Amino acid sequence: MKKVLEMENRVIPIRMLHESLSTTYQLVKGILPENGIPELRIALHAVKTALERNLEKAREGLPVVGYHFAIPGEYLSCFECVPVCLEGTGYYLSTLLLDGVEKYYDLMINWGHPFHTCTAQKGPMGMALDDLFQFDAIFAPTAPCDNTCASYPFFELEKKFPLIIADMPFRRDQRGYEYYAEQLKKSLLKLGEIIGQEPDFEKMKKHIEIENKVQQIRLEIFELTKAIPSPISNIYNAVSAGSFILVSGTKENLSFYEQVLEIVKERYRKKQHHGGEEKIRSIWPYMVTYFDMSLCEWLDRELGMSVLFDIFNYNFAEPVNTESDIDTMFYDMSKKGMGWPMVKQSTDYYYASLENCLQMAKEFSADCFIYTQSIACKQFGSFPQLLREALMDELGIPMLLIEFDVGDKRFTPLKVIKEKIKLFTQTLM
Ligand code: SF4
Q1: What's the chain's average pLDDT?
Q2: Element containing residue 1 per DSSP (H, E)
Q3: C-alpha 99: how far from its chain's center?
Q4: Which residues have any ligand 1 atom within 6 Å of their CB?
Q5: If you measure from the C-alpha of residue 259 to the centroid of ligand 1, how many angstroms do you get, rounded to a whole number?
């Protein structure tokens, strides 16, 4: 028993996350009607169930492998391990814990990590500093930002967790994709050496195939969002990001999207809006708040503002070819990784993102954009202003810029965010 507990204690934040998901799920299931916020209920159940399995694996003593969110999680299914998405865990906890995870940001700042770094990494770094994580290895790419590259060495230098880095090139062409494919393969082989396992690429294929189906469904949901009123609830964006980052490649992730698609189709057929009446259609080209997801419901119900999608819900990859040889599969895995949300926007010139935003604004009949800018994303420093000008000049669509931190409620409190949006909407009516 002592041994089992010791093993589970290597992933205390996952246990915290599982417990808070379970409690929230019970509340949502017990208090809200069946049609309350179904996407939230289904996501809580899916992620909680997949994490239960991971906790069981931890108790069995399987190696714990941390991964950066820009590595599609299903790539780790070639190992018998406990996969832990660092950023996903920190941000989901910031949503679910009553006091958030600011304590861990502060631990890192007091340790000497710069205040202006990203809370996506700072949260799990603080948890590791507090010995809540014991990783056998950590796997990350050199993307999407300098912030990632500068933060991850902490795990190796301070905590002595072996760190494997896949070098992502700048160029987006055949040569670039081949290079990153090679990097991914080498990294998985190296990871295998560290944890004492041969990667089982046949097994990985099965999980990639699950994600191919998931992508298809997510695309269908995305297409249906063009309808007026939008048939998705705003909170779908947040829980969808959480699900595909935390438990990708699992049957629970697939089940989540299958169930959501049915709900979305039903609303589409009935021309129903989750909040009652859609008054404003907004696109959030970056992120929604994680420290308090109630903002999503407030926008839906109080303002009648639909969030058509955020950054995690408008990037789609081609299905990975699993039928051909292993190199083809890795080539497609590479393309998928290099087109990953936030990676795509951060590692390419701005033109592509600007054009994409303009195109989506037209296709999805957007009334406005809301750009949430984090101090950590320095590579985006000048992008919001360019986007604002392009949207206004080309389409006459206004954009609100809010400086905030997705996971730290102290930066811009929810009350201030709401006030800014409320004032902005008055200029739209
Ligand atoms: S791109 Fe921005 S939000 Fe994403 S990990 Fe880097 S600093 Fe954080």
Answers
A1: 96
A2: none
A3: 21
A4: 118, 120, 144-145, 147-148, 342, 346, 374, 376-377
A5: 30
- For the stretch 27-59, pLDDT in tens is 999 998 877 899 999 999 999 999 999 999 999
Mutate to test the pocket of ligand 1, among 68, 71, 87, 145 (most ligand atoms within 8 A of CB): 145
CA of 286, closest atom in ligand 1:
3
Pocket mutation for ligand 1, best pick of 108, 118, 373 (most atoms within 8 Å of C-beta): 118
Per the confidence metrics, is the pTM higher than 0.90? yes
Q: Ligand 1 atom closest to Cα of 406?
A: 3
Q: Quick check: 162 and 156 in contact, CB under 8 A?
A: yes
For residue 157, count other CB atoms closer than 10 A to its CB.
10
List the domains of the chain with CATH numbers: 2-197 (3.40.50.11890)
Is the Cα dihedral 256, 261, 264, 269 positive or negative?
A: negative
Which atom from ligand 1 is nearest to the alpha carbon of 117? 7
Question: By the 8 A CB rule, do 97 and 21 touch?
Answer: no
* pLDDT tens digits, one per residue of 124-156: 999 999 999 999 999 999 999 999 999 999 999
